[in-house]
Design brief:
Radius of gyration: 30 Å
Strand content: under 5%
Structural class: mainly alpha
Number of helices: 29
Helix content: 55-70%
Length: about 600
């Protein structure tokens, strides 16, 4: 039940996946996501982040980062956007941080040797923030391009079933469900944010440019949800407006020398901008209400999203501020910048599934099931890192806070530890309960196949024989369907024992769980063809037809067991003894529950 808290969705998490042995891409991708995060730390820490000069100094790291990012697509394509944001954010913030740290040295070098080589190096170090940001943007684009090129063959054959990203107008997660799932993780992130903010004192003086950037990024998901078409033009207009406002105000002698004109110009500009904002918001709210009638739905969504957006703005402002600070005392806080960045991405993922969904083969009340599943999973990984870091950071630097701040944060820190201890009950209890239910003390083992030796010893022997006696690339044939429990006339696939032998041995077969196979591709004709061919192979009594189909798929071993007999009957099973050799069990066992035939006139290796 822990993975089905939000109705109509799957909110799976790593411990649950490990518990059920869910060897799907979202689980297999975890080490690669952790690799990307580690490389993000390296990219953030790399010195002299300045366009082409940075590539010269760090090209090995850059190529490895591109490789790690590119492999996320064939491994688990959902991880690629998050990986790009992690690496892109690390490069951008690292570039700003390197500029801030280099500024004092650059000024000194320029003063000493303005026109010489040392002076030129100083000028390069003292690049403006805008130029550094543009240089970082070019690096991020180049990183994404190389990541795609490295795995270009995969894209030529990739066949996904996604139909696009659409605004979520119908469903909304209950706040109590969000607190139940994310309460501890977000609380620890908030604790870290509060602690860093108090130490760095970044809000002692507000920086207008940084605040504008943080607001634009933090509220961009909500703005895009309100105005899917006009959001980007509005943002472009806002950037042009802000640039014109800043440039004109700084360069125009006429405006600077006449305060009245300055006030008039600022008033007209801000008035025009506020009118644009009001039109943007009112039109978006009106369209949202028209798509999903009921003010409660819109109000509830804003009640959920706006606090998350404000928290996101706070973290983004904190990250940028720490990156551009030259204050040596901010060193401790700068170390926490990368975990804060991961926290911002996690909040964006949690907020994003309340605003958008990826359209795929799931529809109706399940239309956002996959979106919540995959993006929540990423948020779990990020918040796991942030939470663990927050516990260490707060404990290690608690005494650096003022007395009042310590009095506030110490009880919160204790509460967070108790919450983590409480949550730690689940992994132990769930693992013990699941193992105990599988067969008592005998099944209390790390071997996930032990239950089979207790539940179906004959099948367990088949699996062990295939592991020991066949080539790892040998194609085996078993049924992809079995009679349904509640409706024997209907053939079932998913959530059954279908494919258990191929899945337990790693040997390829013609077809797995049909429902899951359909989720991974847009074209389902191959599934239907293979399903019918398997049926023909087992049921036909025509030796030539069976031989051609077996040769078509290069089948080496045919399994005839209880599932095959239940799905296709027994009339066509005798032909396999004429097409190949019976290799399991020995021929003296005429009443064997499972029989394996080797499809060759030659003797098998074992």
């Amino acid at each position: 039940h822990a993975s089905r808290i939000i109705p109509g969705t799957i909110n799976e998490f790593p411990m649950f996946s490990l518990l059920i042995g869910d060897m799907h891409p979202h689980l297999m991708g975890i080490p690669f996501v952790l690799l990307v995060i580690g490389l993000g730390v390296q990219l953030y820490s790399a010195p002299y982040q300045s366009g082409k000069h940075w590539i010269y100094d760090n090209w090995q790291l850059f190529i490895i980062a591109a490789l790690a990012l590119g492999v996320l697509v064939p491994m688990n394509i959902w991880d690629f956007p998050m990986g790009l944001v992690i690496l892109g954010g690390a490069i951008t913030l690292g570039s700003l941080r390197a500029g801030a740290l280099a500024a004092p040295f650059a000024n000194e070098m320029i003063d000493k040797n303005d026109t010489g080589d040392i002076g030129m190096v100083g000028h390069r170090l003292r690049e403006s923030r805008t130029r550094r940001f543009l240089g970082a943007t070019i690096l991020v684009v180049l990183l994404a391009v190389i990541a795609v090129i490295l795995f270009i063959p995969f894209y030529f054959t990739f066949d996904g079933n996604a139909n696009g990203i659409f605004p979520e107008r119908e469903q909304l997660s209950n706040v109590k469900h969000l607190i139940l799932i994310w309460g501890v993780g977000v609380f620890l992130g908030g604790l870290l944010t509060f602690h860093v903010t108090k130490i760095s004192k970044v809000f002692a003086t507000l920086d207008g440019n940084t605040l504008v950037v943080a607001l634009a990024i933090g509220f961009s998901p909500l703005a895009l949800w309100l105005q899917p078409i006009w959001m980007i033009p509005f943002y472009l207009f806002s950037i042009l407006f802000w640039s014109a406002y800043r440039i004109t105000n700084q360069t125009s002698e006429l405006i600077r020398q006449r305060p009245v004109l300055s006030v008039l110009f600022k008033g007209m500009a801000m008035g025009a901008f506020l009118v644009a904002v009001i039109i943007f918001l009112s039109d978006g709210i009106a369209h949202s209400y028209a798509d999903a009638p009921g003010t409660a739905s819109l109000i509830s969504r804003l009640f959920t999203i706006v606090p998350l957006s404000i928290f996101l703005v706070l973290i983004i402002y904190l990250c940028i501020s720490l990156s551009i600070r030259q204050d040596p005392e901010a060193k401790i806080s700068i170390i926490a910048l990368m975990p804060l960045g991961l926290l911002a991405i996690a909040l964006g993922l949690i907020m994003g599934v309340e605003l958008f969904y990826v359209s795929d083969l799931f529809g109706g009340s399940l239309h956002r099931m996959n979106t919540v599943f995959k993006l929540y999973y990423q948020a779990w990984i990020l918040l796991g890192i942030v939470g663990a870091y927050a516990l260490w950071y707060v404990n290690a630097h608690l005494m650096k806070l003022g007395t009042l701040s310590r009095k506030i944060i110490r009880p919160l820190w204790i509460v967070s530890i108790l919450a983590v201890i409480t949550l730690a009950y689940y992994p132990f209890a769930s693992a013990y309960t699941r193992a105990e239910s599988g067969g008592g003390a005998e099944s209390m083992t790390l071997d996930g196949q032990t239950y089979l030796s207790l539940e179906s010893p004959d099948e367990s022997r088949v699996i062990n024989w295939i592991k020991d006696a066949t080539d790892p690339t040998a194609v085996i044939l078993e049924t992809p369907i079995v009679p349904c429990v509640n409706d024997p006339e209907k053939k079932c696939s998913s959530w059954t024992e279908v494919g258990r032998i191929s899945g337990s041995t790693g040997r390829p077969t013609l077809l797995g769980w049909e429902g899951h196979e359909r989720q991974w591709r847009r074209n389902h004709s191959l599934i239907a063809t293979r399903k019918m061919d398997v049926q023909d192979i087992y049921q036909t009594e025509d030796l030539n037809k069976a031989r051609k189909l077996l040769s078509k798929y290069n089948v080496s071993y045919v399994i005839v067991g209880p599932r095959e007999r239940a799905a296709y009957g027994v009339s066509g099973m005798e032909k396999f003894g004429k097409l190949g050799d019976r290799v399991f069990p020995n021929k003296e066992q005429s009443d064997a529950n499972f029989v394996i035939y080797f499809m060759s006139m030659q003797e098998p290796n074992n």
